Amino acid sequence: MSVESVGPGPGPGPEPGPLCPEHGQALSWFCCSERRPVCAACAGLGGRCRGHRIRRAEERAEELRNKIVDQCERLQIQSATITKYMADVLPGKNQRAVSMASAARELVIQRLGLVRSLCESEEQRLLEQVHDEEERAHQSILTQRAHWAEALQKLDAIRTSLVDMLTHLDDFQLIQKELEIFERTEEAEGILDPQESEKLNFDEKCTRSPLLTQLWATAVLGTLSGTEDVRIDERTVSPFLQLSDDRRTLTFNAKKSKACTDGPERFDHWPNALATTSFQAGLHAWVVNVQNSCAYKVGVALGQLPRKGSGNDSRLGYNAFSWVFSRYDQEFRFSHGGQHESLGLLRCPALLGVLLDLQAQELLFYEPASGTVLHTHHASFPGPLFPVFAVADQTISIVR
To answer: Rounded to whole angstroms, how far apart are CA atoms 22 and 40?
Structure first.
């Protein structure tokens, strides 16, 4: 509002308020430059606030009221978010940590049961790590609960204070409280919303032990415990492959076979094949003779793995549907989702063992002859898994 528009008399107001100590007139105006209430004489041409930006006091008070209302609404929403987080997320985190800790204990006990005479001390060490991790997760959750409870108390106190100002202060008192309102608002804005944190999750890595993995794999494959009679589904066999009568051996042929009838299950481009059965739970193992081939893939795949075309959707290891150990000449690697991890093997394995533990969500590749674990992969497998094979040189055979 321009200085010229300010009249000589006091501005209108809902009720009489404090008077200007210099002119004795009502403080009906607000000087935006000096940020204080003034009278009409102060704001006039001869007043101390001439040339300043002047507003009516009730307009400034209304602006502050609106700001308080907006802030209270934001505080209410933030409080509701934190309350929901404490009610819905933290109890679930705690329950999941307890559940995962229980599953981890079972996993440790199950595996060490196979080789208890050799690794009783390892069992104790791992169980202590699980206990420590469970305690850490539990303490993190308790800390979060205490932190957000305190944040809720602060927000409630700030909101109560602001609501009290809104309901009990007149215009002049409200303007005098502007700094306090700003400080309260700034304090509230400093309380951030809850964020997802890995510290609240149980870390399954605490149960991983190279010694345990090595001994467990040796026990399973060496004693035939958990092995499967895996056969190949002839309906899925690529026309570039020949399947033996016992449905255990695949032989690569560079020329596409004309004898294969096409069907929805058959791979029509890549030299792939799936097993007849899938695994949904439990422990499963099989061994493949790969000594005659310099180009092969062995692993597991979901049933929805596409079968048609030359794209990566049906190429093993290049999509989200397959997890494979592969060899090409002297290069070995593990592949999934188009991500390839090179494996520095010192020699070419003649036999390749595959161990699938769906309880632990673990896929392990193993050389039975040397007792060497070639690679382990942990993942949340989204569905039943089929043994899967590909060969682009000579032959590979399932031996058990």
So the answer is: 11
